[in-house]
Design a protein that fits this description.
- A 7-stranded mixed beta sheet has the order 1-2-3-4-5-6-7, with helices on both faces.
- With 268 residues, the protein is α/β, with parallel strands linked by helices.
- It is built from 9 helices and 7 strands.
Length: 268
Amino acid sequence: MSRLFPKCTRCQTTHFISFLKHAHYVCSRCGCHIRLDAETRIKLICDRRSLKIFNEKIKSEDPLNFPKYRDKLQQSVEATKLNEAIVTGACTIKGHPATIGVMEPNFIMASMGSAVGEKVTRQLEYSIENHLPAIIIISSGGARMQEGILSLMQMAKTSAAVKRLNDRGLPLFTVLSDPTTGGVTASYAMLGNVIIAEPDALIGFAGPRVIEQTIGQKLPAGFQRSEFLLLHGMLDMVVERKQLRTVLATLLDIHSKRAYAGGRHGRR
């Protein structure tokens, strides 16, 4: 988001970057929540200079010698200045401590390979060890096909880590942005104690065109969009981006008060 006059990806309206930044990168004409990189997300959510990044040296290999995969990895590293498709660390949000994972859509569409699964798992394990709630902000094309079954294994691995987190009485808050699809949706994205989505985000496993071709039927209007999923009980809330930081801080505050009350009365 460094261009002076970026365009809305939906209606192609040109915006002055200063005005767009003030609007939390939401188009003033059509309301599109423009896709954000991890760095911008972190600035919008975390308290200033509070993020302490960990496990940033973890990166993917090419276990299957998949054609051109190494080239794609190198291109993504150069484009994003990151080693992988998620940034993880510990931060505060309006003074409330938490761990946070923010997926980077410019890194092979934030697909989940072995390294992403490892980083998510280590984030949740850090939360367990330090008694911190966890937040993951998701924008992903799903499991990374270049790593085959090793990528799919991350679904079970991350889901097991979420279970261990919950067993300690610690919450996971997931924020689903456009798009949240595939193996990420089928694992930790939909396992949050509170599942939040940005407006009109595409959320699903297979894409709508694949589903239509498979079942031979026309899907309902708005199918797999945030508002449709909220109506059918798959989400807890749809939150405008400008309100997201406040909502997350409120959830963290509620958890801290419950944890304090539980400790005071001898409950876990």
